[in-house]
Structure formats: structure tokens, C-alpha cells
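Tutorial handout. Part one gives the primary structure; part two gives the three-dimensional structure as C-alpha cells.
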Amino acid sequence: MAFAMSLNNKADIIYKNNGYTKIGEPTEAALKVASEKLGKYDTRVENPSSKNPQPFFDHASKTQIVGVLEFSSERKCMSTVVKGSPLNPSGNTVLLKGAPEKVIEKCVTYKNKSG
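Part two.
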């Protein structure tokens, strides 16, 4: 989940003037912060530092981005295709986020509260 939130995202968090600031939409920035909080437990992440607020993104961004379909109000979702993700090291993976009804309609299977 941290991987998807980090790479399927256009926001940045930067360290400037002894503080953190966001670049981009607030919701996107919140997802980026959440991905960093989850990603700090990834043992493959090198050099975590308070002056680098995105060490997990730096690690995840070594994955090749094949293409991006930006969020639009018509599609109500954003998709990023990556090659060599942790879930599929030798192939392509689609990272998708958006309105639940749009995401679910694109799924082959999903789990709901009744299983």
C-alpha cells in the first residue's frame, strides 16, 4: 500500500527552513506522508533522515514508471503503470487510486464485509 501511495502520486514533501512543507494537493500530500510513515519499516530503505522527508519514495522511485493516466473528474481515478514492482518484479503492475465505485468496477475480485 505504501508503494502505491508513494508512486501513484504527484505531491512532494520537502524540508525547508527547518520545517516540512507540501507541494501539490493536500490530499495527495497526506497520502505521501502516510506512505513514508508506513515505508519507514521497509528494511531496504537507506539513509532515513529528518532532512529527507521522502526516503521511502526515493527507494520506491527506483522502479521504472512506464506510464501515467492523470486523475480526471471524468475517470475519477489515477493510474500509474510500473515495471518491476515488489509485487511483480519481472512484469508490469497498475497502481490505481480513486473513487471507490470506480476502483471496484475495474477489479476482477475484491473482499467486502461479508468476505
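Part three, for discussion. The first strand starts at residue 12 and ends at 16. The mean pLDDT is 88.
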